[in-house]
Specification:
CATH architecture of the largest domain: Up-down Bundle
Oligomer: single chain
CATH topology of the largest domain: Four Helix Bundle (Hemerythrin (Met), subunit A)
Strand order of the largest sheet: 1-3-2
Largest sheet: 3 strands, antiparallel
CATH class of the largest domain: Mainly Alpha
Number of domains: 2
Number of helices: 10
Order of helices and strands: HEHHEEHHHHHHH
Mean pLDDT: 83
Shape: globular
Distance between the termini: 35 Å
Helix content: 55-70%
């Protein structure tokens, strides 16, 4: 998820596939980059579940390329923690590393809390209307709940609130943690669907604080508590499953 201090993107689910891409013009991406982003999207949205084997020749045939760019894409996915490589098995989609999830969520809670608090004074009424629209879409999606679709919209909501943070270095750190979570977090709401309703309510509280020009430390704490609440919900599910 790439944050930029520019005009915020329009609302739409397709934005997730473009997170982290360079802003170069059409046709500028190499074959390996095209394959990388397509595979990454399939891993993040759950099309390729943990343990799914990535057969280079099959993928190359699907994309109409040689195995060279596919191998480069898979290596990049491995470097990002989304793919494991085992001798005599090959490349497979990585499973959920529970300790990595806890660490990444905790880091994100503190970093994004600070980034949102710094961004708040720079968010316009139009920006907040967009964020409210995404949150309404999240609430509407509860009627026919799709955890993967909900996760994409949820990330878009957080991106909208962070995008105008004036600290570029902080945004880089937030972006890194979202990328870290991309694979391990892809089905969080599948495990704890009840968290979705609570999350929407917490979004509304954060938007109210920003709209009322609350002190930055209150906004920061609200965002941090919100993200840590998702981590706690998953931890409670995990503890109950292991009992």
């Amino acid at each position: 998820m790439a944050y930029r201090r520019v005009d915020l993107p329009s609302i739409g689910g397709a934005a997730s596939m473009n997170r982290g891409r360079a802003t170069a013009g059409p046709g500028s991406e190499s074959k390996s980059e095209v394959v990388y982003w397509a595979l990454r999207e399939r891993i993040v949205d759950g099309t390729y579940s943990p343990g799914h084997r990535l057969v280079l020749a099959t993928i190359a045939e699907q994309f109409g390329v040689s195995t060279v760019p596919v191998r480069e894409a898979v290596r990049k996915l491995e470097a990002g923690g989304l793919v494991d490589f085992q001798h005599n098995v090959g490349a497979t989609v990585a499973g959920i590393d529970e300790h990595a999830y806890d660490d990444a969520m905790e880091a994100l809670a503190y970093l994004e809390g600070a980034a949102t608090a710094l961004a708040a004074p720079h968010l316009t009424k139009a920006d907040l209307r967009r964020a409210n629209a995404v949150n309404r879409e999240l609430r509407q999606s509860l009627k026919n709940f799709d955890p993967i679709g909900f996760t994409k919209l949820n990330q878009q909501f957080h991106e909208l609130l962070c995008s105008k943070c004036p600290n570029a270095h902080l945004l880089t750190l937030v972006d890194r943690e979202w990328n870290q979570l991309a694979g391990i977090r892809r089905s969080t709401f599948s495990f704890v669907p009840g968290r979705a309703q609570t999350s929407i309510t917490e979004h509304e509280h954060i938007l109210t604080l920003i709209g009322d020009h609350a002190p930055q430390h209150e906004i920061e704490f609200a965002v941090r508590r919100h993200l840590m609440g998702t981590r706690q919900a998953f931890d409670e599910y995990r503890a109950a499953s292991n009992a």
